[in-house]
């Protein structure tokens, strides 16, 4: 049983998530994490991975013992502060893999087959004047996965069915039949498509830079379903403007929800507004798992899916 008003809910939650929360617990809400915490004696925070949690907020909550975060990235949590104050934290790994993989594959085909442009072409009547330009097929290509973790592995399994060769990079080689490359540059040299599924944060910041993009080359495609911070966005924009890569499909951005306006006129980019996990089923499952973590905490059990 979670005590009433012992959980501070931080950030805005879509209706489907809020309904799931309201079924199980009564929280106090703080939409803007930079505003003062409402008075109360909170032991827990419930938030989403897209909400930056500033240390200044946590300092106002001396009884805080746990943060349950809906989402799998924890680059928006002040990890050093949590460690120093022995505050536990959980995320919602696994339950969003299906939705994120589906979006990754959707973006990949949208990019290779130019589906947004084809849709416009059919709607506008341009089809009556000429045929849509010929595009390229995925089968036979090499797909390089940057970060063969939970999402990366599930994505690789699904992609195998399309007749591609999978290769990957990461901090170390995994027990896997896929070819391992020590760096993103080395992977980009052999890949026709690079898909990013690694975490955000300082260790991967701007890892996909001009060198990686040049290695990917003018026939190479980039798909980012990880975090905007992983790409050097200005290097990507110049590579796209100068056709030094064939194209990019991006679900995540450096300054979301602000979009760099240089993306807008580009025809070799497909954009989506960070919707990797944004399906009803997935958002409900993420919320449920976050609440289950809170229930475990308030019942003096270990968190189900802690961040170590
Ligand atoms: P995960 O299981 O932790 O997998 C991350 C993988 O990235 C791990 O295999 C890790 O290697 C690898 N990695 C770590 N540092 C790396 C580096 N410098 N270069 C290359 N690979 C590196 O996490 P997940 O559940 O698959 O989620 C992955 C990421 O997807 C999340 O962190 C989040 O940012 C993103 N995501 C995006 C959306 C969206 O809406 N677009 C939704 C959910 C998640 P080790 O195994 O060796 O540690």
How would you sum up this structure, described in words?
It is a single chain. The chain has 308 residues and is α/β, with parallel strands linked by helices. It has 2 domains: 7-94 and 280-298, Rossmann fold; 97-271, NAD(P)-binding Rossmann-like Domain (Rossmann fold), CATH 3.40.50. It is 32% helix and 16% strand. The chain is built from 10 helices and 12 strands. The strands form 2 sheets. Strands 8-7-6-9-10-11-12 form a 7-stranded parallel sheet. A 5-stranded parallel sheet has the order 2-1-3-4-5, with helices on one face. The two termini are 25 Å apart. Bound molecules: NADP nicotinamide-adenine-dinucleotide phosphate. Residues 72-73, 93, 96, 100, 146-152, 169-172, 197-200, 203-204, 207, 225-227, 251-252, 274, 276-277 line the site of NADP nicotinamide-adenine-dinucleotide phosphate.
The H-level CATH homologous superfamily of the largest domain, spelled out, is NAD(P)-binding Rossmann-like Domain
CATH class of the largest domain: Alpha Beta
**Average pLDDT:** 97
Helix-strand topology string: EHEEHEHEHHEHEEHEHEHEEH
The total beta strand count reads 12
* Small molecules bound in the structure, each named once: NADP nicotinamide-adenine-dinucleotide phosphate
Summed up, the helix count is 10
Oligomer: single chain
Q: What structural class do the secondary elements suggest? A: alpha/beta
Shape: elongated
Strand residue percentage: 15-25%
Helix content: 25-40%
Largest sheet: 7 strands, parallel
Termini separation: 25 Å
Estimate nothing, just give the exact number of structural domains: 2
Strand order of the largest sheet: 8-7-6-9-10-11-12
């Amino acid at each position: 049983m979670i005590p009433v008003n012992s959980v501070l809910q931080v950030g805005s939650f879509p209706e489907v998530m809020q309904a799931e929360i309201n079924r199980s617990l009564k929280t106090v809400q703080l939409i803007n994490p930079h505003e003062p915490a409402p008075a109360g004696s909170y032991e827990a925070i419930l938030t989403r991975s897209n909400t930056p949690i500033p240390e200044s907020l946590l300092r106002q909550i001396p009884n805080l013992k746990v943060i349950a975060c809906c989402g799998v990235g924890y680059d928006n949590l002040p990890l050093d502060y949590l460690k120093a104050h022995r505050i536990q934290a959980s995320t919602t790994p696994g339950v969003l893999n299906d939705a994120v993989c589906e979006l990754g594959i959707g973006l990949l085909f949208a990019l290779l087959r130019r589906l947004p442009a084809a849709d416009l072409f059919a709607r506008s009547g341009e089809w009556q004047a000429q045929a849509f330009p010929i595009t390229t097929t995925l089968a036979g290509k090499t797909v390089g996965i940057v970060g063969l973790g939970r999402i990366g592995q599930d994505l690789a399994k699904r992609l195998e069915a399309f007749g591609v060769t999978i290769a990957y990079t990461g901090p170390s080689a995994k027990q896997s039949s896929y070819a391992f490359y020590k760096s993103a540059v080395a992977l980009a040299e052999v890949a026709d498509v690079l898909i990013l599924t690694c975490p955000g944060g300082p260790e991967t910041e701007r890892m996909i830079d001009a060198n990686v993009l040049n290695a990917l080359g003018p026939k190479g495609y980039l798909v980012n379903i990880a975090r905007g911070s992983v790409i050097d966005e200005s290097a990507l924009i110049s590579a796209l403007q100068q056709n030094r890569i064939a194209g990019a499909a991006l679900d995540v951005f450096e300054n979301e929800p602000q979009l760099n306006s240089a993306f807008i006129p580009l025809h070799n980019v497909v954009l989506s507004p960070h919707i990797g996990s944004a399906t009803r089923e997935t958002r409900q499952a993420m919320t449920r798992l976050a609440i289950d973590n809170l229930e475990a905490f308030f019942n003096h059990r270990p968190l189900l899916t802690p961040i170590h």
